[in-house]
Amino acid sequence: xxxxxxxxxxVMSAGSEAPAHRPAPPACPxxxxxxxxxYYFCPNCGANLRPAPLKTDTISxxxxxxxxxxxxxxxxxxxxxxxxxxxxxxxxxxxxQIGMIAWALMIISAxxxxxxxxxxxxxxxxxxxxxxxxxxxxxxx
Length: 141
Ligand SMILES: [Zn+2]
Known about the structure:
141 residues, mainly alpha, 3 domains, 66% helix, disordered N terminus, binds zinc ion
């Protein structure tokens, strides 16, 4: 919108040189409240305004790749070695009940983890879209 109005009004942008190249006033990408450039966190909603740059060195990469390979393996092994399955298959009513409780707890835990993953992913996408919008807004000249 900034670029649109300055294109329609070339006299204004020629007359004042400051607004054209001044960066957009910093605003929180989450709640759009104005913030100071020195802030690390939004005082209104607590959003991180300056995410630490990710490490891209070789050791960090290898660590991440190994973790990505190992984590699903651990999950797979954990499910395979899950003792609750034996309880669930048991003919004994008490053992079966223990298995049912363990099964229910595991399902609840899995739902919570999936739920948080979905929420986190949506927040991440929203923050990315917001930061793209902020970048586009500051490009107006
Ligand atoms: Zn905020």
